[in-house]
Design goal:
Blueprint: E1 3-7, H1 11-22, E2 26-29, H2 36-44, E3 47-49, H3 52-56, E4 60-63, H4 70-81, E5 88-92, H5 98-108, E6 113-121, E7 132-136, H6 144-148, E8 152-155, H7 162-190, H8 194-204, H9 206-219, H10 223-237, H11 244-262, H12 266-275
Parallel strand pairs: 1-2, 1-4, 2-3, 4-5, 5-6, 7-8
Antiparallel strand pairs: 6-7
């Protein structure tokens, strides 16, 4: 039975911790400075909060935090690893650009930390559903322990940056579509073309209509987390690629939707009303 640390006990981190615990792993977490609600969520998922030293002494250490926190977690793990007398296997599972992932690896250079590039495709694990954990730079197959305890792991040939590139590409398409649909529908609402747009989408491209009708409302509570992710995707494409500007724009869209959720939710209400319009009405 493996001991696995999950740093981060948000919706994804706690669900991953629960799946690993259900699969027989001992699951630790380090939550210094986090809220009581976060501590309660971690404990309910079968995760045991502990000290940083014990946490990084586990067989595997997973980082599942918002993109903006990824480098800080790596720095903390690298510094604490110098206190241990054994190697630390650290898997960064965050939605970060390959360049940021390489910074994570560089941060850990010269320490006992072995860095594995990871990315999660899909939502939090739940009964009957499993996201996929893609990994690269795992020459020793350390991540087999994740498979052994209930996670779906897929290996990618390539080094640091390969798994992160997959995440950036996939999220750019899927979350980018949600952001684009949100922006265009809000534009149509402002100009009185909203119901006509919705009916045309439903008639002409029903698959897109179905997808946006689910993904846009689902986005509201996640929008604040997607802001940094969109900026990471822009970084992934690079300043010489004009498409990077699209994702700077998407960051702005999600920033606006996050502020709307924290405020009076006027935009969300307008979108919900529009998404409820049925074809032919």
């Amino acid at each position: 039975m493996a001991t696995i640390t999950v740093i981060g006990a948000g919706a994804m981190g706690s669900a991953v911790g629960r799946r690993l615990a259900e699969g027989g792993a001992t699951v630790l977490t380090f939550l210094e400075g986090r809220s009581t609600a976060t501590l309660d969520r971690a404990k309910a998922a079968g995760m045991r909060p502990t000290t940083l030293t014990e946490a990084i002494g586990a067989d595997l250490v997973l980082s599942i935090v918002p993109p903006a926190e990824a480098l800080g977690v790596a720095k903390t793990v690298a510094a604490e690893s110098l206190r241990l007398a054994k190697p630390v296997v650290f898997i960064d599972c965050n939605a970060i650009a390959p360049a940021t992932m390489k910074q994570v690896a560089e941060t850990c250079a010269g320490t006992p930390v072995e860095v594995i590039d990871g990315s999660i495709i899909g939502g939090p694990p739940r009964p009957g559903y499993d996201p996929k954990f893609y990994v690269s730079a795992d020459s020793e197959n350390h991540t087999r322990r994740l498979s052994d305890h209930g996670l779906v792991v897929r290996r990618i040939d390539g080094g640091i940056g390969a798994a992160s590139a997959l995440k950036m590409s996939y999220a750019g398409i899927t979350k980018g579509m949600t952001g684009l649909g949100t922006a265009m529908m809000l534009g149509a609402i402002r100009n009185g073309a909203d119901e006509s747009l919705k009916r045309e989408i439903a008639e002409s491209v029903p698959d897109i209509d179905k997808r946006l009708s689910a993904s846009i409302p689902d986005m509201y509570q996640k929008a604040y987390r997607w802001v940094a992710e969109m900026r990471e995707i822009a970084e992934f494409l690079g300043p010489d690629d004009a498409a990077s500007q699209i994702f700077h724009g998407m960051a702005g869209v999600f920033e606006k939707m996050a502020a709307d959720r924290d405020g009076d939710a006027v935009l969300a209400s307008q979108l919900d009303k529009l998404l409820a319009v049925k074809e032919g009405k």
